[in-house]
Amino acid sequence: MIEIKNLKKSYKKVKALKGINLKVERGELFALLGPNGAGKTTCIRIINGLTKKDEGEIYINGIDIFKNKYEGKKLCGLIPQSINLDIDLTVRENLFIHGLLYSMSIKEIKRKTDEMLEYVGMLEKQHFKVKGLSGGMRRRVLIARALMHSPKVLFLDEPTVGLDPSIRRKIWWLIKKIQENGATIFLTTHYIEEAEFLADRVAFIDEGNIVKIDTPDNLKHAIGQYAVDIIDDNNFKTLFFKDKNEISNFFKKDYKKFHIRRVNLEDAFITYTGKKVSDD
Prior knowledge:
This protein is α/β, with parallel strands linked by helices. Helix content is 35%, strand content 29%. A hairpin with a 2-residue loop joins strand 9 and strand 10. Helix 3 packs across helix 4 and helix 3 packs parallel to helix 5.
């Protein structure tokens, strides 16, 4: 559904993207995981026509989006990192304007607005002004707006940033629901647990390069099944093991402080990039 070839972008002397290559399959939820400044938002902005590329090609459903910008935009919905709703308009008015921008008929706008507001659980708030809504509610309105024109591909740029954990999980449930209804989803995030819970496949991005692409389970299992965090002589280190027998054989040395746990996606990210996702 999405194919990116040799995508490059620089801002003066800073190379934000250094030749990105990746493919996203139809119906897949694909996550681009990396720290702030890794190039995630730049990638999404280029795909959605908000930033100009330096080099590269992007195809969505076989359409070259740089040669057929209007056709490409009709296929895509975008949920940006920032809340770019008109806060002085009501929830319903924001969706109505979006429908007009996509040349939808008035009848279709009314039908889709009702459908989308019910879908995201905001029908009762439809006549509230956006400025009176909580952060989680505003995120749900962004999702409803992005789905108004029935896009084939949904781009989510850090969709739960700044939300508390309980609201974040409600948004996760909604994202999975959208995928189950047939959408292809391209997600950027720096939340490890978000990528691990939502994504069919994950790409690690760091300093403008794709470091590794695979399923969350394959990325974790490639380094081991179990992790042992050890504090020894005031130093902290993590070792990885294939099974518990390996751990037993290793621990003939007496470590006073250690913790055994399952390998997680952050372990894989650190192994492949040498840094934490939360690093600036």
